[in-house]
Amino acid sequence: TVTHLHTFADSGGWLTDTTVTAGIHVPNFGTIPIACARTDTIKTQTEQGLDNVLRSNEFFWGYSKRLSDPCAVGIQARFLTSDIQEETTESVVPFPARLETTLLWSIDFNVGVRWAYDSNWSIGALAGTGWGKANTDVSNIFPLQNLTPPPPTIPANTPLFSFDDSFRPWLVRLGGGFT
């Protein structure tokens, strides 16, 4: 299945999302779902005057199998990469007009089980973990004048600072269903 979304914003920007999904069922083996999604925002601006750009790619792979009539299990892996750019031309002390660029990647794994109590009731559990890294670079958009003598000019697009962050999410969910 291919799905494409194209949405216009009041500010004149737009968002596109394209998703491709497929499921391969192999008798006596199980089902292998795969999907990928691409999201882009172009020329979007916030109410505060920030220009934002998002480019994101997600890839999903999974496997599920019905072990018996009431019991099914599944696993899933997801890989995400994103490039986020946020720009402002408003100088806010102590930050000059700047461009912030964040590069992000993460990978997640989930495993789940479902048990059908009867034809109407089922319960399920899901557990997952992942890890990822983000790097943000901040640079000036316009040349900067240093206020201390001698007053050298800092050229445009000079990196002002950079920081890295890593994260590790954990997930546990329990649920029930009625049909």
General description of the model:
The protein has 179 residues and is mainly beta. Helices cover 0% and strands 73% of the residues. It has no helices and eleven strands. The chain has strands at 2-8, 14-26, 30-45, 51-66, 71-88, 98-116, 121-140, 144-145, 153-154, 159-167, 170-178. The strands form two sheets. Strands 1, 2, 3, 4, 5, 6, 7, 10 and 11 form a nine-stranded antiparallel sheet that branches. Strand 4 (51-66) and strand 5 (71-88) form a beta hairpin. The radius of gyration is 23 Å and the shape is elongated. The two termini are 26 Å apart.
Shape descriptor: elongated
How many beta-strand runs? 11
Written as H for each helix and E for each strand, in order along the chain, the element string is EEEEEEEEEEE
Radius of gyration: 23 Å
Structural class: mainly beta
State which percent range the strand residues make up: over 45%
What average pLDDT do the residues reach?
Answer: 88
Distance between the termini: 26 Å
Poorly predicted regions? none
Taking the sheet with the most strands, its summary is:
9 strands, antiparallel
Secondary structure tally, helices: 0
The share of residues in helices is: under 10%
Features of this protein?
179 residues; mainly beta; 9-stranded antiparallel β-sheet; 0% helix
What would you say about this model in short?
The chain is mainly beta and 179 residues long. It is built from no helices and 11 strands.
